[in-house]
Specification:
single chain; 299 residues; alpha/beta; globular; AB hydrolase-1 domain-containing protein; hydrolase; AB_hydrolase_sf; AB_hydrolase_fold; hydrolase activity
Length: 299
């Protein structure tokens, strides 16, 4: 898919959708851009998740300007053949925010690392933040077996190029979605997973994103020690109450306090909140947009 030229959405009608590849930072990522009103809402999926997982949330945000990111390896872009680092992920997100400044990051799970780091490095680019059951790691943990996991990813990439083995990817995705949401194993799933997780690049990307988790968490702790969080940034933290029990809710509360935000606990939601309670994500996003609009009117 060719990269969209600058201004490709100029003059487009509200609701018009553009899919394109873009070089962000030093990497190529896939974008889905929907023309709409207000600050851009930049939706960033968690580890190994495609951008279409946000569809239920987008349906609750009619008329809004939406930008969805598929990191390298997803959305038809090539896997970079390495474990991703926090610096690379943040550069990609900053590149996207430079194209769509003054927006709101809506980040799920591990993507909360990238969103927080981008705000810390370039706070002038972002007007608000919504973390959806964001990863929270208060202490350093030693990365384990990174070289081995890279070898596993390369082997999985090779295997996924063979049709019988490629069929395993969608099966694993179905099991993962069932384990992390209220959906049942035999419930209808998004048909796009049949092609998404049969892709060799996507399979390798999922493995290396997971394998890079601890190092990225540690790098964020270091960045926190070196930077200040912008005062007054509207932040909403959504916590899935069924994701990890009381300890998880407490860790999320500490994250909200660290970022000066508000926490909303969803007692019946599992980790994939966008599938279980998408309207609550939309509501939190609208709350942030309301604060931004109020401040714009006062200035």
């Amino acid at each position: 898919m060719a990269e969209a030229p600058a201004g490709a959405m100029d003059g487009a009608q509200p609701g018009a959708i553009l899919e394109c590849d873009a070089v962000l930072g030093a990497r190529t990522a896939h974008l889905t851009i929907e023309r709409g009103e207000g600050p851009p809402l930049i939706l960033i999926s968690g580890c190994g998740m495609p951008s279409y997982v946000w569809d239920p949330v987008v349906r609750h945000l009619p008329g809004r300007q939406i930008v969805r990111l598929d990191r390298p390896g997803m959305g038809g872009t090539p896997w970079p053949d390495q474990l991703p680092t926090l610096a690379e992920e943040t550069d990609t997100l900053i590149g996207l925010a430079e194209q769509h400044p003054g927006g709101v990051f809506v980040a799920h799970s591990m993507a909360s690392f990238h969103a927080e780091a981008a705000v810390r490095r370039r706070p002038e680019l972002v007007a608000g933040l919504v973390l959806v059951d964001g990863s929270a790691e208060p202490a350093v943990r030693k990365p384990i077996g990174e070289g081995a996991w890279l070898a596993v990813a390369r082997a999985a990439e090779w295997a996924a190029q063979h049709r019988p083995l490629a069929a395993l990817g969608p099966v694993v995705d179905r099991i993962t979605v069932t384990a992390q949401s209220r959906r049942r194993l035999l419930d209808p799933m998004d048909s796009r997973s049949l092609t998404t997780y049969a892709s060799a690049d996507a399979v390798a990307s999922v493995i290396t994103e997971w394998a890079g988790y601890r190092r990225q968490a540690n790098d964020l702790l270091q960045l926190r020690a070196e930077t200040r969080w912008p005062i007054g940034l509207p932040v909403e933290v959504i916590t899935a109450g069924r994701a990890g029990g009381g300890r998880w809710v407490a860790a999320q509360r500490e994250l909200a306090e660290l970022l000066g935000g508000n926490q909303t606990v969803l007692p019946d939601s599992r980790h994939l909140v966008m599938l279980d309670e998408p309207h609550r994500i939309a509501s939190a996003t609208e709350q942030v947009l309301a604060v931004i609009a109020e401040r714009t009117e006062r200035s």
